[in-house]
């Protein structure tokens, strides 16, 4: 990475002010134990970084719970129901969009929470991660009625409403619309610097954690390398805080 200088300077400003910026890491599409998951869990453990793991309920296997047994700082989250696209033709992919009746969407959300609670017990956080980071406008109230207390999508977090708080992600390590490998490191660091600066200067809520987004099952060498370098730089930095994922959903 060639643009760390700007990020380092921005973090130094936070340190000079005696402030710390909260970060968190969310990884999507977990279903079972795998070498890729083992690598992610080990990397987070080495860096002492909590992980929010978004699990697809319809496909979740007992091996996943077994893989997480030795990793108490990993928090399972509910990733839709089956990660199926129900969007209308020509629309962006969406599982919980307005095309389907609200009662069906709420029932699937309730089912996902129930299935994963059976698998993970009390360590499951009632936080809903909509597949493709989008859902119908009426879903927050439906999720609240289904027993959820938080949502995580992508981009600036909306204000809490309907009993639902938002804990979004902001930096996606994968170039989904291009090479489907790692995003350009300099572009990612420019975004990171902007997220930090906007919080420090009051253009964004300073209490909103900066969320990193990964998908362990599709990582190639370049994506793993990008994640490693980010964690090497940010883990343990005096201006960076990595709260437990459960604490973020109550902020």
UniProtKB/TrEMBL annotation:
CDD domains tied to this protein: CE4_u4 (cd10928)
One GO BP: carbohydrate metabolic process
InterPro entries per UniProt: CE4_u4-like, Glyco_hydro/deAcase_b/a-brl
Domain of life: Bacteria
Protein name from the UniProt record: Polysaccharide deacetylase
Source organism of the structure: Azospirillum oryzae
